[in-house]
Amino acid sequence: MRRALALAAIMTLALGGCTMPSWMPFSGGGSSKEPEPAKPVAAATSIVPLRPAAGKPAAPDESVTDRVLAVVNNDAITLSDLQEAIAIYQYENRDRGPAPANELAPQFLTRMIDNRLQIQEAEREKILIEDAEIEEELADRLKKMNVKSRDEFDAMLKAQGLSMEAVKRRISDEIRRNRVVGRKVRLRISVTEAEVTQYLEANRAKLETGLTYHARHILILPEAGASDAAWENARIRADLVRGHLLQGGDFAELAQQNSQDATARDGGDLGTLKRGELAQDIEAQILSLAPGEVSLPYRSALGYHIFRLESKDSLEGEGLTRVKAQIREILFREKFDARFDAWIKEIKQRAIIDVRLDGQL
């Protein structure tokens, strides 16, 4: 099992299948430590060297026995490239059950073509990666893989028929792809305060759904029979309890002494709740209170309730600041996705792409 995990780690690093970090609008200058936001890429770029673009696809080299599945300008994507990318994906997602390679192939090949186009754009932009950047990124990945030394990793590569140069080339391509996406997409996106405010107002109810509050509760039930007189008696008892609370009585003690709800033993504590967990009419009574305020007795189908709001999150102060930051990320991601898709479409339109995948791997 350990050997299988080690092999998967090597394949992921050496063949370019490293999963992108969780998306967020990075503000760095394109370092591999803080990559420009890019759509997650499941497929790898090929180890076939890039060549300058020409007016038409080059004919495959007869000396190359690996089957060519696509030619992107003058750059070939081979069967082994695709199989390796799919194998890595299937290993990393083995808990989800097997997915036939023939079903994955078209989607993966499309992503690999997109990747190759981005690398070619980075070349046109003359984006160069220093050896020191590659070494730093490689060291960081080896640390995450718990590889003790470079010699140990080199031996692991050789055991799988891979080379250190191939690994470094993959890392360089990934950094260049991230950097060109940053230049062509991320740096051309901005989110204004007006857009954030507009989104907030349009989605306030939905945003408030995830907020929490903490409350206590006393329930006074009518006596058996639930006659009008019994209900009136329950109301009077509830008023008396509320009077004690307003005079400084301890809510937890009064709940233990008077409440007929299961929470009485906990001093009426309802705990921390998310909005929407309680019945709408009950929640409305609680959330209408200010923190520390005690409600008037409220009649429900069960009896009379007395609530005290302990605390609640709101779209104000620090809570508003957090929500606005989340909104800014949402809007940035929407704009990023739209601009990224438009950019990929643009570079595809001026590329010469010859797809030779026939559905059989």
Topology:
Layout (H helix, E strand, L loop, with lengths): L1 H13 L53 E5 L2 E4 H14 L8 H24 L6 H14 L5 H10 L4 H21 L8 H10 L1 H6 L2 E9 L7 H19 L4 H8 L10 E6 L5 H8 L10 E2 L4 E9 L4 H33 L3 E3 L6
Antiparallel strand pairs: 1-2, 1-7, 3-4, 3-6, 5-6
Strand content: 5-15%
Q: Percent range for helical residues?
A: 40-55%
Structural class, by secondary structure, is alpha+beta
Lateral strand order in the biggest sheet:
4-3-6-5
CATH topology of the largest domain: Triger factor/SurA peptide-binding fold
Shape: elongated
Poorly predicted spans: 1-5, 15-64
CATH superfamily of the largest domain: Porin chaperone SurA, peptide-binding domain
The largest sheet, given as strand count, sense and whether it forms a barrel, is: 4 strands, antiparallel
**What's the SSE pattern?**
HEEHHHHHHHEHHEHEEHE
The CATH architecture of the largest domain comes to Orthogonal Bundle
Give the tally of β-strands: 7
**How far is the N terminus from the C terminus?**
27 Å
